[in-house]
Design brief:
2 domains; alpha/beta; 218 residues; Rossmann fold
Length: 218
């Protein structure tokens, strides 16, 4: 029997442990990797090439929406299921716009989690719970037709630095995380601030919250 290979990306160990137990108790699934750091997820997918990636929307270092975008842009065949605490339209729309095949709320029951993996592996979309089939099409249509915003002008490196800066990492910390020089970080930060029209760290954080890069305040 052909196995569906899965990578789990979430910074909560207990959730990953629970998902692994759920999937491995079901015939036909194999969890072949786990990751807690958003900056390492794309490389893991590149290395392991799983059938499905179950990905937390709010990963530290690099959020799930941007991870999804990078994986799709690189042409990987891995299908992505976004895991989220939020039913907020902003997250759902951006997930579909960036190429996710599924969006599942973390409070979904085990049967729904398994169904989501099966559906996306079969080439279909899956949205959790109250998000209806008609909503899938509406979100996808909106995602395709929505005009590009200034965020789309940022390079992948600038997006990484934007999130790390919004998480209040220092220039030195960002340089260490990304393996580049502090001066290079400063240059990228200046460029992204200019592109987005941001004048301060406070404005950067507010932008990250509004754009869904950091968790929206309840």
């Amino acid at each position: 029997m052909t196995r569906t290979t899965v990578v789990l990306a979430d910074d909560h160990h207990i959730l990953r442990q629970g998902l692994r137990a759920l999937l491995e108790a079901e015939e036909g699934f194999a969890v072949i990797g786990e990751e807690a750091d958003g900056l390492k997820v794309v490389d893991m997918v590149d290395r392991l090439r799983p059938d499905v990636l179950m990905l937390d929307v709010m990963m530290p270092g690099l959020n799930g929406l941007e991870i999804t975008r990078q994986i799709v842009q690189r042409g990987f065949k891995t299908r992505i299921v976004i895991l989220s605490m939020h039913a907020n339209e902003t997250y759902v729309r951006e997930a579909l716009r960036n190429g996710a095949a599924g969006y599942v709320l973390k409070d979904a029951n085990p049967a729904e989690m398994l169904q989501a993996v099966r559906e996306v592996h079969a080439g279909r979309r899956y949205l959790s719970g109250s998000l209806s089939e008609r909503a899938i099409e509406a979100y996808a249509h909106h995602a395709q037709d929505a005009p590009a915003d200034l965020y789309e002008t940022l390079t992948p490196r600038e997006r990484e630095i934007l999130q790390l800066a919004a998480e209040s990492s220092s220039i030195g910390e960002i340089a260490t995380r990304l393996g580049i020089s502090p001066r290079t970080v400063e240059t990228h930060r200046e460029n992204l601030m200019r592109k987005l029209g941001l004048q301060s760290q406070t404005a950067l954080i507010r932008y990250a919250l509004r754009r869904g890069i950091l968790p929206l305040e309840d």
